[in-house]
Design goal:
mainly alpha
Length: about 220
């Protein structure tokens, strides 16, 4: 998991956020609960320009696991509400609450999980490295300085699920193998330059960054 810079609000949201929110909240009041509201009121954020903006913001990586969306492990992209829309309907169409996630992180792990005291980290607003670090010997994320928000993030996003840890560990072994070859010739700078150019086309780009931090 890593930090990203939030891009400009898409036009469909800047134009319609207020009215969509008002309509949704009114319908919740009429129906009695969020769950009873028709999806036509809840799902108006599913606009092409919103999806495109989020995918671009994350370089088409999942905001949590950093898998490239569209590959075998993360087939579909989902618009993720950091604050679950069922709990915070007033933020359903808030641009600052929307992120880009793979279907596994979004529907199998994060879902409607929320810890009000120690909320999941926001890749756009929180310094991820203050709360989490990657153990480059195991491929597991760990809470930094016993950060409770780090623990929440690991648990709610399933960052240490078996398949993901194994995939990160394989990436670390691959990086170590390549790095050792360059190091033998004293050409570590070439290795760093190469992966700086390639990392956005790879799964788990921050794994590379953490690996470099560990060996340099």
């Amino acid at each position: 998991m890593r930090n990203v810079i939030r891009t400009t609000i898409p036009s469909s949201l800047s134009t319609n956020e207020a009215i969509w929110t008002s309509d949704l909240l009114s319908e919740i009041k009429r129906a009695g609960s969020f769950s009873k509201v028709d999806n036509s009121y809840k799902d108006k954020y599913r606009q092409d320009d919103i999806k495109d903006s989020l995918a671009k913001m994350y370089n088409n990586h999942c905001c949590y696991c950093e898998s490239i969306i569209g590959k075998e492990y993360a087939t579909y992209g989902r618009i993720e509400h950091l604050k679950p829309k069922s709990i915070f309907p007033m933020n359903c169409f808030d641009w600052n609450n929307l992120h880009w996630a793979c279907e596994v992180c979004n529907t199998s792990y994060k879902k409607d999980n929320w810890d009000n005291s120690n909320p999941i980290l926001d890749p756009c607003n929180d310094s991820i490295s203050d709360h989490l670090y990657l153990d480059t010997s195991t491929g597991e994320y760990k809470s930094k300085h016993s950060s409770l928000r780090g623990i929440t993030t690991i648990n709610h996003a399933g960052l240490n699920r078996d398949g993901l840890v194994k995939a990160r560990r394989s990436k670390l072994i691959e990086l170590a193998t390549h790095y050792s070859k360059y190091k033998k010739t004293g050409d570590e700078k070439t290795f760093i330059s190469l992966y700086d150019k390639l990392k956005e086309d790879l799964d788990y780009p921050s794994v590379y960054e953490d690996f470099i931090d560990a060996v340099t």
